[in-house]
């Protein structure tokens, strides 16, 4: 094993460990947020369910031109 192999192994290990740590924190915070905001979480879930049932986005995104005088 040469130095380049060791660097790649360390880089991959670090990246995977950090991703697992972030995923754990995301799961923990998500559970906490859902517990603290149950009504908002339920409303978001309902919207996401509608989107999934439609098998696509609810509508196309349209950028708002705030400078327009319409």
Task: Provide keyphrases for this structure.
70 residues, mainly alpha, 2 helices, 71% helix, extended
Classify the helix fraction into a percent range.
over 70%
Shape: extended
Low-confidence parts, pLDDT < 50 over ≥5 residues?
Answer: none
The description of the largest β-sheet is: none
Topology pattern, helix = H, strand = E = HH
The secondary-structure class comes to mainly alpha
Radius of gyration: 21 Å
- How many extended strands? 0
Number of helices: 2
Distance between the termini: 67 Å
Q: Indicate the mean pLDDT.
A: 82
* Amount of beta strand: under 5%
Account of the protein in words:
The chain has 70 residues and is mainly alpha-helical. The chain has a domain at 26-52. It is 71% helix and 0% strand. It has helices spanning 3-36, 38-53. The longest helix has 34 residues, at 3-36. The radius of gyration is 21 Å and the shape is extended. The termini are far apart. The mean pLDDT is 82.
Helix/strand layout:
Blueprint: H1 3-36, H2 38-53
Task: Describe, in short, the structure shown.
This protein has a domain at 26-52.
């Amino acid at each position: 094993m040469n130095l380049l192999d060791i660097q790649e192994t360390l880089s991959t290990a670090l990246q995977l460990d950090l991703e697992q740590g972030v995923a754990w924190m995301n799961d923990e915070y998500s559970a906490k947020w859902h517990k603290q905001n149950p009504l908002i979480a339920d409303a978001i879930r309902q919207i996401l369910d509608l989107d999934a049932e439609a098998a696509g986005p609810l509508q196309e995104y349209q950028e708002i031109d705030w400078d327009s005088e319409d």
